[in-house]
């Protein structure tokens, strides 16, 4: 029987993928007490990246927002794998975004809204979170965006 958050995902037309396996010497998530730390997730959907290259040159803000949203969906897939039930999320505590950016690109926070907006759409007030957005010169697989997250869980 689907929980409240599963129903919300269904309403939003979101089907969670199988969580991505780590590509190096780390794990997808670590739980410490009531906190769940989820490793950075790329903007992968169905085995292909939503956007590759640099924001501000090859990738538009709108494409970056879609990529950040895809990262957030992948974060939720990891959380579900860790907890078995997304209703166990008490609060989205923090998101960290890494934006593959051209040197003069200043709209990283607008790009990260793709991930932040999804968390609020899914969890409501519990989805409001602290956030960091960092422009970087490169990401794995030339992904346009990578997002990590910290969640308070029951």
Task: Spell out the blueprint of helices and strands.
Blueprint: H1 4-11, E1 29-32, E2 35-42, E3 44-45, E4 48-49, H2 61-83, E5 89-100, H3 108-123, E6 130-136, E7 145-153
Parallel strand pairs: 5-6
Antiparallel strand pairs: 1-2, 2-7, 3-4, 5-7
Helix pairs in contact: 2-3
Q: Which terms would index this structure?
A:
globular, five-stranded mixed beta sheet, two-stranded antiparallel sheet, 60s Ribosomal Protein L30, Chain: A, 154 residues, alpha+beta
Question: How would you sum up this structure, described in words?
Answer:
This protein has 154 residues and is of the alpha+beta class. It has one domain (35-149): RutC-like (60s Ribosomal Protein L30, Chain: A, 2-Layer Sandwich), CATH 3.30.1330. 31% of the residues lie in helices and 29% in strands. Strands 1-2-7-5-6 form a 5-stranded mixed beta sheet. The protein is globular.
Would you summarize the structure shown here?
This protein has 154 residues and is an alpha+beta fold.
- The CATH architecture comes to 2-Layer Sandwich
What percent of the residues sit in helical stretches (DSSP H or I)? 25-40%
- Give average pLDDT, whole number: 97
Question: Spans with pLDDT under 50 lasting ≥5 residues?
Answer: none
> Which CATH first-tier class would you pick?
Alpha Beta
Provide the number of structural domains.
1
Beta-strand proportion: 25-35%
Q: What name does the CATH topology carry? A: 60s Ribosomal Protein L30, Chain: A
Main sheet overview: 5 strands, mixed
Which sequence of SSEs, written as H and E, runs from N to C? Answer: HEEEEHEHEE
According to CATH, the homologous superfamily is RutC-like
Number of helices: 3
Terminal residue distance: 19 Å
Structural class: alpha+beta
Q: How many beta-strand segments?
A: 7
Strand order of the largest sheet: 1-2-7-5-6
What overall geometry do the principal axes of the alpha carbons give?
globular
Q: What is the gyration radius calculated from CA atoms?
A: 15 Å
